[in-house]
Task: structure prediction
Amino acid sequence: MSRMPHSRSVLRTVAPLSLGGLALWCATMAGAQAQEARPAAEAGAASRIARVTVYPGSATVERVARVPAGARSLTLGCLPASIDAQSLQISADPAVRVGEFNVLTEDRDVAAACASPLDGRIRELEDQIAGVKAESSALQLVDGYLRGVAGVGGIVAGDDAATPPTTAAAGRTASPTPAQITATAEVLRKSGQDAFTRAHQLKRKQEALELALKPLVAERDRVAGQRARVVTVSINLAAERDAELRLSYQVRGPGWQPTYRATLDSANSTVLLERQALVAQNSGEDWSGVQLTLSTGQPGRATQGRLPRAWTLDVAPPPQPVAAAPAMAMAAPAPPASPAPLARSRMAEEAMPSFDVSSIDKGFATEFAVPQRITVPSNGQRVTLALGSQTATATLITRTAPAVEEAAYLIAQMAQPAGVWPAGAVGLYRDGAFVGTGRIDFASASAGTPAGSTNLSFGRDELVTVRAEAVQDLTGSTGFTGSRTERKTRRAYSVDNRHKTAITLQVLHAAPVSRNEKIEVESRYQPQPADLAWDRSPGTVAWQQSLAAGATAQFSAEHTIRYPKDIQLQERQ
Result:
């Protein structure tokens, strides 16, 4: 009976261990309250971006705002500083009469409601990190409590040397039973294990959150440094009833880059062209769930071409004597200083992302309306969009230039499909296998193709064997007195077709071309080439013929060059 009060004391000491989760719950609730305590500026926006039309290097953004009945003015703030003020257009429902509007550009720090588009995500991660830290602090309290209980248990176990007299006396009068000691030790072990495991999990979670937070903070600082100013548009109006007002404007910087995927079906001589687009923007505002349209038009280009200047002829005046330079000549003015490296880097960043679509010169633009709503963040991240596919008939040619490389390559020639096809990179697939990358550019004719067509090279043809014989080069003298040099050069090639079907073979050869009337060139070919100026290039000879399966074709070219011995021949090849 004398042990009962001590037994109840031990139970009262251990019982609060089951409430350790209460401390963790309180810490979690504190983190949740901190997460709910967000600035009211994030509660909603007066307007939303409904539609965006992206051009090479710019974009037209259309915002929609609700106008309540009886409103006399509307203010749209926190717009990006990259807005072209001259492009602002305002339209509204018939129930709204729109008057004058004002445009104000100010520092972002002055406009308290204008936060970076990344601030919400950064604040959310910071709140989660704060919650993890609060839970870790609560676990430290639990850990300290467990260590204290463990110390008391050790004292009760009989450490009389380190125990005050009163405690030691109590221990002697009311020692716990072995069963009570075992139960207390088990509860301490289980609680301590759970606390240490949870602490390790919280440490890993905090590391992951901090790793996700770091790039967002860096991006926010970069964007804030580039665009530290915002635009506010104030509109005077009169609304008879609830209606919508639309504000459209152009921003500089966004753009899209066309990319393609070409899959060759060699059995059917067709190429499947798949359109894709890479869209990126860093205008300072996120495009969240917008209706996106891609256009090949270029509103930033000149609207009128250059005109010819007058061509006049006159008699040149006699040359004027040049005065002697004075001994102490005045120093020439220094050339204009180039922009500082930092300024140049900032201008380069402002121009990003840059796209090469602007080289297209077409009379009309093609627009691609994306059916689903798209989100493009304002951090330069590229979003890939599929724009459909089209199958084109191709002419397959096996091309080789034996004097340069003893190899043959499979070429697909195809005409431009309907519409505007901006130049862009293309991934090349031959019969389902990836062979490499190339470039599609219908505006600039490929080698040996008419305007509006292009060549796509689908890799090396391993079933065609190409051999070039050793060059035969002889030099001698001609003329009545041997005053001229005569040089004869012979090149010969052979091509084997190891395909099971016939191929269209094209063999290219470079013939010498005279640039001086004193140099004579005479050429003989076997067989006769199909084109002596292939790709409109004099001297580039092309043989083209059908080569049956298992057949071999022979080609040769002999060139005789004559020139006076007293001149030095300049040869470039």
